[in-house]
Structure formats: structure tokens, C-alpha cells
Specification:
With 151 residues, the protein is α+β, with helices and mostly antiparallel strands. The chain has a single domain, classed as Aminopeptidase, CATH 3.40.630.30. Helices cover 35% and strands 36% of the residues. A 6-stranded mixed sheet has the order 1-2-3-4-6-5, with helices on both faces. Strand 1 and strand 2 form a beta hairpin. The termini are far apart.
């Protein structure tokens, strides 16, 4: 539920279309989330034992622009009311530590180009833009920035 909530808040600028709902029902299904937790690729942040944020990694992953293999930070979601309190920073540091422990030369991620707050957050943490790639849903396509940081 946390991932769906943050996803709608971030990307549902025009509401929830059928395409958007289909994407969310598969990407954030209970089965998929349980798999991610079991595979130890989902790190969570809590407040009073309640979920407030999560970060997902994919490894090994190949960066679509510089073709280096390494770890992708595929999600970093924090509930709005906890933004600006260091939760995202702590989750990102955890993901970076996991990637560095594996000997990865870089951590890379994609961020929606129309999310200036997220882009600015990553840039403050030392990530630099490599270029853009399309993010395709069923019909629509959105522009994502690819950012990377040497570890």
C-alpha cells in the first residue's frame, strides 16, 4: 500500500487512468512485494513500527546509457509527510552501501524528468545526469533521466 500511495501522489497528476491502474496492480501486487522482501532487494524505513519509506534495488543491472553493470536503485519512495526528515537520505545511503559492498563501480537510477524535487534530491547526493530514456507503459511513454554516482 505504501508504494501505491507514493506512486499515485508522485505520478497521478491527472488522476488514475486505466493504464495507470493496470501498471500499479502488477508492479505493486502483494505477491511481487513479498517476493522483493524475500529476495532482500527491498529496504524499508519505519516510524513507530509503521512503514514510511522503501527502496528497491536491482542487481545485477546494466545502465541503459553507459552500459556499465552494477546496481540500479529502482525505487526510493517516502510518504509525503516524512519528506525532508532524512528518510530518503538514509534509504539511499543504505542502497549505496549495499552496492559498494558488492564492488559495484556505480549506482544508477531513473527518475521522471517532470519530478524536479526528486532530481534535485539526487543531485544534492552527488548523482549526475547521463541522459534520458523512455519509460513505456501500455500506450503512453514518459521521459526519465538516468542519473549515476561513482561509488
Amino acid at each position: 500500500m505504501l508504494l501505491q500511495h507514493v506512486y499515485i501522489d508522485t505520478y497521478g497528476l491527472e488522476g488514475v487512468s486505466p493504464e495507470f491502474a493496470n501498471f500499479m496492480s502488477t508492479r505493486f501486487s502483494v505477491e511481487r512485494i513479498n517476493f522483493l522482501i524475500a529476495a532482500a532487494v527491498l529496504t524499508v524505513a519505519t516510524f513507530r513500527e509503521n512503514l514510511i519509506g522503501a527502496a528497491e534495488i536491482v542487481r545485477p543491472a546494466r545502465c541503459p546509457l553507459n552500459r556499465l553493470s552494477g546496481t540500479e536503485s529502482s525505487k526510493l519512495y517516502v510518504l509525503e509527510r516524512f519528506c525532508g526528515q532524512g528518510v530518503g537520505y538514509a534509504l539511499l545511503r543504505c542502497v549505496e552501501a549495499l552496492a559498494a559492498a558488492d564492488g559495484d563501480p556505480q549506482l544508477w537510477l531513473e527518475v521522471w524528468s517532470r519530478n524536479p524535487r526528486a532530481v534535485a534530491f539526487y543531485e544534492r547526493q552527488g548523482y549526475r545526469a547521463l541522459g534520458t530514456v523512455p519509460f513505456r507503459m501500455e500506450v503512453n511513454c514518459y521521459e526519465n533521466l538516468v542519473l549515476a554516482k561513482a561509488l
